Amino acid sequence: MTTQDTQNKQSTVKNSRMLSVEQLSKDIEAGVIDSVVLAFTDMQGRLQGKIIHGQFFLDTVLSHGTEACNYLLAVDTDMNTVDGYKLTSWETGYGDMEFVLDYQTIRRVPYLEKTAIIQADIATTDGRPVPVSPRSLLRAQQDKANELGLVALAGTELEFVMYTDSYEDATLRNFKDLTPANQYNVDYSILGSMRVEPLLRDIRNAMYEAGMIVESAKGECNFGQHEIAFRYDDVITTADNHTFYKLSAKHMAAQRGQSITFMAKPNEREGSSCHIHMSLRGLDGSLAFWDPATGKRTKLYNHFIAGVLATMREFTLFYAPNINSYKRFAKGSFAPTAVAWGLDNRTCSVRLVGEGQGARMENRLPGADANPYLAMAAMLAGGLYGMKHELELPEMIEGNAYASDAEHVPHTMAEARELFANSKIALEVFGEEVVKHYTHYADIELEQFNAAVTDWEVRRGFERH
Fold first, then answer.
1. Within-domain flag for 238
2. pLDDT band at residue 4 using 50, 70 and 90 as cut-offs
3. Angle at 406 between CA 400 and CA 410, to 5 degrees
4. Is the pLDDT of residue 3 over 50?
5. pTM tops 0.85
6. CATH code, 119
7. The dihedral of CA 82, 87, 90, 93: what is its sign?
8. Cα dihedral 210→214→217→221 (10° resolution)
9. What is the gyration radius of the CA atoms in the chain, in angstroms?
10. Residue 445 and residue 360: Cα distance in Å, rounded?
11. 337, 367: one domain
12. How confident is the model at residue 11 (pLDDT cuts 50, 70, 90)?
């Protein structure tokens, strides 16, 4: 058992809806819970792991842990093993890695009978953290902030498109001619939300029962597009909540014979975003981004924003990790194209909002397909880099950032890959192992996409070429 296991078992729960190890044990012994999901987040932002029988969890896993194949951090989206990763390969025998259970994450899974879930970090079999694991990446940046006497807080706004078709039907129809849950733009429409409220309500209530603080649901612009918002928390907790919610929303839709997609750009209409709000506080809760005496932003805040902007192009791979991610970056689409900041300006990639305790920056670059651990690690690493080097803010954009002469974000994954692979800053803040691992991830995606024949090519060329 690692030191972290011992510390987490002794920790208190965040609220009365989360479970302590003691309560989980009592619930298993009483037959209230009979299954325990152990899950970690992979490169693609998905929860992977095992479903453990409750009694076996008590008798064995709680004291001795469990393992999984290390290929899970070196596969493509289709779970194919691919060559070229240093972490794992056929040559090294595809060995094990260990789950390091975070006992502060124990929660019931309300939409499944007698089931709880625990999220985990990943370690080698000799107990060393795996740096390329998304949760480890974010934790490393969180630790750097803590060393400066700061804690990073974040909230994610995650959009999705809901269909009345099941996932199975969507697959059989090759994902064509699906029926969105709403047939028109329902942005802020109460009727539009209420029309699909049974599922939205179920998700909201289930997430509350699972220990999250639910704020609201609202319609968005694309047909069948909606968003459910949750209260901010420390970055690790927010990323944990985000991944559990994303899994749950899909699962609960499937239980109703429907489907939800978090693709960044599922069709030619508006894409789905994952706006990330972030701020820093002192370890004692004191303000770091706002000076109450002057009623203005602090220098630290300005340096942080400058750092996020200065690294945005080089870190875009962590904000936009898929081929489809880049289809979202279109002029006048509310998805940013300019590396720019503004006060409450939604045309900028960085939007500043709030004052006092509410002062925070919103990163509008990530899409709904972003891995929250990687996106927040990039954002926090960039901000801390700006603080360390006391970077100055560029001139604020007033008006339409799409029409400005500001530098643009990469518009293809190939461009983002080159910027990340050759970034001296990425090498400094993430380390060589991480840079090489995720550069190879991009190479695999690009290779597979370049070998694919798209519907667009067939339609244009079948007869006319």
1. yes
2. very low
3. 105
4. no
5. yes
6. 3.10.20.70
7. negative
8. -90
9. 22
10. 34
11. yes
12. low
User: Does residue 463 fall inside a structural domain?
Assistant: no
In this structure, the answer to whether residues 179 and 55 fall within a common structural domain is no
Question: How sure is the predictor about 9, in pLDDT bands with cuts at 50, 70 and 90?
Answer: low
- pLDDT > 70 fraction of the chain, expressed in percent and rounded: 98
User: Per DSSP, what are the bridge partners of residue 275?
Assistant: 157
Q: Are residues 400 and 303 in the same domain?
A: yes
Distance of CA 294 to the CA centre of its chain: 35
Domain co-membership, 281 together with 404: yes
**Mean of per-residue pLDDT scores for the chain:** 94
pLDDT at 148: 97
How far is the C-alpha of 406 from the C-alpha of 366, rounded, in Å?
Answer: 18
Q: Do both 434 and 312 map to the same domain?
A: yes
Q: How many domains does the chain have?
A: 2
Q: What is the pLDDT of residue 7?
A: 43
In 3D space, the residue among 140, 91, 109, 99 whose CA is nearest the CA of residue 27 turns out to be 109
Residues of the chain with pLDDT > 90, as a percent, come to 90
* Side chain identity, residue 69: C
CATH number at residue 432: 3.30.590.10
Q: What is the pLDDT of residue 90?
A: 78
The pair of structure tokens assigned to 169 is 């039907």
Same domain, 380 and 424: yes
Whether residues 163 and 96 share a domain: the answer is: no
Neighbours of 54 (CB within 10 A): 21
Place of tokens 């109450």: 292
Segments forming the whole domain that contains residue 290: 142-454
Q: Is there a single domain that holds both residue 231 and residue 319?
A: yes
**pLDDT above 80: residue 89:** no
Determine the Cα–Cα distance for residues 70 and 95; give it in Å rounded to an integer. 6
Domain boundary among 67, 97, 130: 130
Domain final residue, candidates 66, 101, 130: 130
Give the CA dihedral 156, 157, 161, 164, nearest 10 degrees: 90
